[in-house]
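Lab notebook page, bench 4
Experiment: in silico fold of construct C2
Operator: M.H.
Input chain length: 200 residues
Purpose: comparison with the prior construct
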Amino acid sequence: MLGYDWPRLHAALNDLPAALLLIAVLFDLAAALARRPALRVIGFATMVAGAVGGVLAVVSGLQAEEHIAHGEAVHRVMETHETLALVTLGIFGVLALWRVVREKRMGGTERGITLALSLGGLGVLIATAVLGGRMVFEHAAGIPTVVLQEEMHERAEGHHHHGAEADEAADHDDAAPAATADSTQPAGHTHAPGTPPHQD
């Protein structure tokens, strides 16, 4: 699939819908506070796009769950992440469809209810994203076992810097013996270059 397996495809698809839904809620909130209908139009269009993208993100996530190796700990996090993702999609999917039908005929109370639901959906969306990050960064979900084992082996061997930082460190190490070569001289006592050593 264009070089993507399901976990990578899910990772590629899930960020944009979340960003669009966040922007939609922020525009709707700004429209309500500033009483600017133009901002509400932007929020409406962005919410519809985010809901459509959310369908793709959820479908790819459900497929990714079946194609990644994972243990019991990550499975529990994954199940909660999946539940929250479905709730998020449900909230914004219903809101997007409702606004397609009612956007131009909504009264103040109806808009207030939809905004409150949007803010609640945003909270669930953020919780979903936090759990998704936890799966990757705390449980290495989606990383093949072979790749993970190789990375652990490399980390056990240690990391060696290359380039300018390493050259600077090497120069510092080379200069250190020269600075301490004549340890018989009193502290703070120096000679100009070419000065012969003291005769005792």
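Observations: The two ends are 83 Å apart (CA to CA). The helical segments are 6-13, 15-34, 37-65, 72-102, 108-139, 145-157, 164-179.
Next step: discuss at group meeting.
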